[in-house]
C-alpha cells in the first residue's frame, strides 16, 4: 500500500492536530510515546493544521524535531501567532513576522500554507493592513486568509474587495464550513463548546489561489455529514481539473472520532471520482487500522 510520502497528491487531507489522547487506538498504536505521535500521524495523513503556533511560538529545536518526524511530502499549515493577528491586528508587525518565520525556517519547505486567521472585529476598513501584511511574506510563500467579519460574507462590494485583493496577491481564502456542527442538537459539552467557539458564517467556496483550504467542522454523528459534504463532491473535482491542490481538514466537536470521519469522507470522495469516470489520477487509499488491528504488533499503520 502506498504511503503519503510516495505520492504526488491532488488533495492534502488532515486533521486539526496531530496529538490527541483518544487516537491511541485509531492512529498511534499501543506503546506509542507522545514524542512519536507526529511521525505516526504523518504515516496516515498528508497535512495538519498547526494550531500550536497560534498560541505560542515554539523553540527552533522543537521545529527541527517536527521536520525530522515527517516525510518530505508532508505539508504543515501553520497559523500566524495571535499576538500578530489578534492583539496587533497586523499593525506594526513586520519584525514580529520576521522573527516568527525565522524560528519556523527548519520546516519552511514543508509548510504548504501560512494561515492568517483574523478576528471578527477585523473589518473591511482594515483591508489595507492585510494588503500590506501579505507583502511582508517572501514571494515564494503560500498564504491563506480566514476572515470572520459579517461584511466579508454579504456578497457586496466589501467582500468583492477582499476577494479581488486575495486574487491579486495570490493568497488563498480559507473556507470555514461549520454547517454540520451547527445542525447538531446542542446536548453534549463537546457540541456546546464547538458551537460557542466556531464561527457560524456562510460557505463561499471560492478559490482565490492554487491551494484552497477547507475547514470542515463535522456533526458528531458522522453519517449526518453527508448532505453537507455533497457540495464538496462537486467542487473539489472542479478544482482538481483546474490544476489546484486543495487542503481539506476534518474536525469533529471533540475530535475523538476525527480520524475515522476523515477516512470515511475521503473514501466517499474517492468513490465519487471513480463513479464519475474521472480521468484524473485517483486519490490514493487512506488506511486507518481498526482497534483490533492496531493492538497486533505485526500490523503496519499503512
UniProtKB/TrEMBL annotation:
**Listed SUPFAM superfamilies:** TM1631-like
Coiled-coil annotation reads: none
Q: What is this protein called?
A: DUF72 domain-containing protein
> What is the native source organism of this protein?
Photobacterium angustum
Give the source lineage, highest ranks first: Bacteria, Pseudomonadati, Pseudomonadota, Gammaproteobacteria, Vibrionales
Amino acid at each position: 500500500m502506498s504511503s503519503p510520502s510516495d505520492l504526488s497528491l491532488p488533495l492534502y487531507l488532515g486533521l486539526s492536530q496531530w496529538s490527541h489522547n483518544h487516537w491511541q487506538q485509531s492512529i498511534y498504536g499501543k506503546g506509542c510515546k507522545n514524542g512519536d505521535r507526529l511521525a505516526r500521524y504523518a504515516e496516515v495523513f498528508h497535512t495538519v493544521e498547526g494550531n500550536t503556533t497560534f498560541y505560542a511560538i515554539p523553540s527552533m529545536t522543537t521545529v527541527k524535531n517536527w521536520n525530522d518526524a515527517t516525510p518530505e511530502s508532508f505539508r504543515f499549515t501553520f497559523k500566524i501567532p495571535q499576538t500578530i493577528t489578534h492583539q496587533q491586528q497586523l499593525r506594526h508587525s513586520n519584525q514580529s513576522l520576521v522573527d516568527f518565520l525565522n524560528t519556523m525556517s527548519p520546516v519552511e519547505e514543508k509548510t504548504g500554507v501560512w494561515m492568517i486567521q483574523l478576528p471578527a472585529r477585523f473589518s473591511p476598513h482594515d483591508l489595507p493592513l492585510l494588503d500590506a501584511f501579505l507583502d511582508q511574506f517572501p514571494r515564494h510563500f503560500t498564504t491563506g486568509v480566514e476572515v470572520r467579519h459579517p461584511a466579508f460574507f454579504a456578497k457586496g462590494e466589501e467582500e468583492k474587495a477582499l476577494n479581488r485583493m486575495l486574487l491579486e496577491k495570490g493568497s488563498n481564502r480559507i473556507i470555514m464550513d461549520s454547517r454540520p456542527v451547527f445542525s447538531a442538537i446542542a446536548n453534549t459539552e463537546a457540541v456546546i463548546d464547538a458551537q460557542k467557539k466556531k464561527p457560524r458564517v456562510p460557505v463561499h467556496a471560492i478559490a482565490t489561489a492554487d491551494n484552497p483550504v477547507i475547514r470542515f467542522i463535522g456533526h458528531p454523528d458522522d453519517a449526518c455529514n453527508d448532505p453537507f459534504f455533497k457540495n464538496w463532491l462537486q467542487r473539489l473535482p472542479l478544482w482538481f481539473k483546474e490544476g489546484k491542490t486543495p487542503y481539506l481538514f476534518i474536525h469533529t466537536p471533540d475530535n475523538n472520532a476525527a480520524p475515522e470521519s476523515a477516512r470515511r469522507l475521503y473514501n466517499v470522495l474517492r468513490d465519487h471520482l471513480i463513479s464519475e469516470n474521472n480521468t484524473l489520477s485517483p486519490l490514493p487509499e487512506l488506511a486507518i487500522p481498526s482497534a483490533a488491528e492496531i493492538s497486533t504488533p505485526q500490523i503496519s499503520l499503512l
